[in-house]
Specification:
With 171 residues, this protein is mainly beta. It is 0% helix and 48% strand. The chain has no helices and 17 strands. The strands form 5 sheets. Strands 3-4-5-6 form a 4-stranded antiparallel β-sheet, with no helix packed on it. A 4-stranded antiparallel β-sheet has the order 7-8-9-10, with no helix packed on it. A hairpin with a 5-residue loop joins strand 7 and strand 8 (74-78).
Length: 171
Amino acid sequence: IRIWDRDGRLVSHLRGHAGAQRCAIDFSRTGDRVVTSALDRTVRVWNLDGQPEAVLHLGDGPAASVAFAPSGREVVAGGASLRLWDLVPRELPSLESDGYITNIRWSPDGTHMLLQCVAEDFGGWVELWSAKGKRVFRSEQQGKVMYMPLAWSADGTRFTASIGEGVARVW
């Protein structure tokens, strides 16, 4: 994984995942750390010098999506399950979703996580979870989707998902 600045200069080369297949990447809000996932079933937190700060192991498959909490203290990874880590460093409990998690977005204040989930038949839905691990909301299944873009309003009071066929819903 390579990181460049706006002028196209290479800033860092992150090495450590086994194999060539990377799944997801996210910057911390401060821009000084990166979280990555790969098919090797690990989630890695890096500083911009290319040094790993944490290696988090997943037992149930790779993470399709990763995200830093706005505080930079927690990392969430979604795939076959939803895993939340406190980087201080203790692992928080695994959270149970009914589907495969393909996209995660933290609320601007870090109190909630928005998930896109997909079932085996590729039906997709949106789930809203508190940062403490409680599911707050689950939308109805939205038809056949593989990936739904998710976004929060800047004030964190609303969220949206593109649910396919040119339709977006706002909650």
